[in-house]
Amino acid sequence: MGIGTAAQEEDFASVLLTEAQIGERVEALAREIAAQYADKHPLLIGVLKGSIVFLADLMRRLDIPLEIDLICASSYGGGSETSGTVTLLKDLSQDIRGRHVLVVEDIVDTGTTLRCLLDLLQERSPASLGIVALLSKPDRRRAHIDIDFLGFEIPDEFVVGYGLDFAEKYRYLPYLAVLKPEAYALAGDDNTP
Ligand code: PRP
Fold it and tell me: Which has the closest alpha carbon to 179: 15, 5, 4, 6?
């Protein structure tokens, strides 16, 4: 597989995960989740915007009754280091009391976003609260997070594609690429998901 268009190639150091590698892993995660949630009618909560591609692929492979909802929280704002403060930009459209909830994230980096969201959701008394994350950067963790279903542990590099962006670019790519440091250094960013 090529690394992208000529313009993208200039910005990418490498392809971290191909479309096929991601697809295989998502399939395996879906099997694990389906086995544990078959009779639980889970509510999958996608965290906007980064999780939408993962959520769309995952839910189509989960051959069990389920519902989805979306929440939008941001701690990165314009895109450099996490601010440490999470802003809730869009809340859920339904009550989660008594529901088996699975929060779906594209990446757990410092853990700040998820820690805040989990605290918020736990107050609403779900029957259970689990986490599905495609990617985790353990070297960057500041908040303790137990990920129930994890796709890949990845090194501390700036990755884009499959829902993840740099300054809103590259979310549409079907694979995950590593951004060259010089591609984000100009914007004053040094290390974000
Ligand atoms: C990204 C990502 C996670 C969060 C992870 O979201 O989607 O929600 O950062 O970082 P953390 O573990 O350090 O909190 P971002 O705020 O960039 O918004 P986006 O999903 O719209 O890109």
Answer: 15
3-state SS assignment for residue 144? coil
Encode pLDDT of 15-29 as tens digits: 999 999 999 999 999
- Structure-token pair, residue 94: 């339904």
109 is catalytic: yes
Query: Which pLDDT score is estimated for 75?
Result: 75
Atom index in ligand 1 nearest the CA of residue 164 equals 22
Q: How many CB atoms neighbour CB 4 within 10 A?
A: 17
The ligand 1 atom at the shortest distance from the C-alpha of residue 73 is: 16
Q: Which of 11, 57, 106, 109 is catalytic?
A: 109
Span 123-168, pLDDT tens digits:
999 999 999 999 999 999 999 999 999 999 999 999 999 999 999 9
Residue 38: both structure tokens together: 């078959």
Determine how β-strand 87-90 pairs with β-strand 100-108: unpaired
Spatial separation of the C-alpha atoms in residues 68 and 82, rounded to whole Å: 27
